[in-house]
Amino acid sequence: MAETGPEVREVLARSGAALLRAGCAGRGLALAEWSNRETSTRYERPGHHTLSLYLDGGEGVVREDGGVSGGGPDKLCLLPAGHESRWRIGGRLRLFHLYVAPETLAYQALTAFDRDPRHLDLAERTFSDDPATAMVVRGAVLPLDWSAGADRMALNAACHLLLHALLRRHAGGEAGPVRGGLSPALRRRIAERIEARLGEALTLDDLAGEAGLSTFHFAKMFKASFGIAPHRYVVERRIARAKHRLAEGRDGLADIALACGFVSQRHFTRSFRQATGTTPAAWRRGR
Predict the structure, then answer these.
(1) Each residue of 248-257: pLDDT tens digit?
(2) CA distance 88 to 38
(3) Is residue 25 within 8 Å of residue 159, measured between CB atoms?
(4) Per the database record, which ranges form the HTH araC/xylS-type domain (predicted)?
(5) What are phi and psi of 8, to 5 degrees?
(6) How many C-beta neighbours within 10 Å does residue 100 have?
(7) Domains in the chain, please, with CATH?
(8) Which end of the chain is more exposed for a tag (fewer CB within 10 A), N or C?
């Protein structure tokens, strides 16, 4: 993955823009309100998506890298993570920004729309008309106290409405459900994580978090990739490690059980018998 540059808010702050207020709307979601005037700004591959809505002014803004002008109240700009752009600010303006981590947008695509995040293509927009988004920002986001705990749930809900609007109107790529399982790189990473943690209490939520997917969709994609459910795969890998330890002949059954992630020797024996048709002790003697 290419290195990302400074975040949009860092660039704005260095350019002399005034931060009027800022807040957090949940994991991977931050928002800010800015005022700015008579300056220039350059964004170089920020690591997050930025939804920008002009609240006041903006008619004197020019996107220099595309020669585009035409800003103004309720005009929307959408700047995907990793983009590059140059802006000249003429006159005064006030802006709303929503900063979205790519993994947060991907998670929403998967869980809310059953869309494969691997093929998500967020469009770049400059001075677009999007009345529905403007209505949510002005009617549901700006009136809230971003720092008040009492408004946190409402703020999170409003920002998720904005995410869903982005996915419905500004995100291309495959619109069908997830198919084909995990990518080769992710499959390899998940398998390595399982091997490294066989002696620990692994949960489906842990593995789904590693993949950046909902638990439900991770389980479906895992089975499509490995041919069996995650739980069964983990048990098989634990049995395989136990066989290796049994063959070495150095450790007792209780020690092997704990080293391979079984909660007790009894649990180990039961699982081993279900998988092989014999007990660990009998398997060791038959070697």
Answers:
(1) 988 999 999 9
(2) 8
(3) yes
(4) 188-286
(5) -55, -45
(6) 24
(7) 8-172 (2.60.120.10), 180-287 (1.10.10.60)
(8) N
